[in-house]
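Homework help board

Subject: predicted structure for assignment chain

Our instructor gave us this sequence and asked us to write out the predicted structure in token form, then describe one feature. I got the tokens but I'm not sure how to describe them. Can anyone check?
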Amino acid sequence: MKNVLIFIWRYYFFFLFLILEGFSVGLLVDNNEYHESGYYSKLSEQTARIQDGYDQFFEYFRLKSINQQLAYENSGLRSDLKQSYFLYKKADQITVNDTVYRQQYVYIPAKAINNSTGKRNNFITLNRGLLHGIKPDMAVVNGEGIVGIVKDVSPNFSSVISFLNKKCSISAKIKNGDYFGTCYWEGGNPKEAMLNDIPSHAEVHIGDTIITSSYSKLFPEGITVGIIQSFDLKPGNNFYDIKIRLNTNFQRVTYVYVVRNMMKAEQENLEAVGQKEEEQ
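My token output:
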């Protein structure tokens, strides 16, 4: 405190000058309309800049909550997509106006809290479980494309078989074609996969987009898998060996959607009945 008083006493002429200068500016502003207008205009401008910087600073720390909010909003939007609805049409209805849709897919937002990509069998852990409506054998996707399939579930967490796993394969097709095949990861490069069972007479081009097909009971049709990087047709083989560059960057998977097919059980029950009759 003593040092502060000594400092003030030593430079009191300077502080007195500042006080008198401020007092003079105040009198000038108060008694001159032109200067008053300019002063408050500048003051408002500087205040706005400070407030903007303040908002940007604290906005950074709100990114986590903003991302979570966007994930919930996107899950609702995805659930409302046309691809999430199953078309019902009676035999005597032939016009589009008589078409009735029923929702088939529901998207549940979740966050990956553990993930591996360097193993032969990779898994992802999500922060959502039974209490959030997640069950085994549900598809997992994100904004880039496919991610994996739910394997085990606890009340608050779920374990996902990553697509980068030898036990994971999905039905996929070339976007602009009707031929479908099996897509799987061979191991090694987490950015590449293989697509088999596409017949040799199908049109295949480098750069074609690969999407999930309607034959998948878990994934909605049209989810991006990747693009064709190369393809080969060996002599005597009737099917292409197609290499795909995956659209999903598995090394940075964070926010995902768990997809619930509300008609999966109905389809499986019907197919089980048909299979049982065929075996008899």
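Reply (TA_rk): Your tokens look well-formed. For the description, you could write something like this. The longest helix spans residues 33-60. That's the kind of observation they're looking for.
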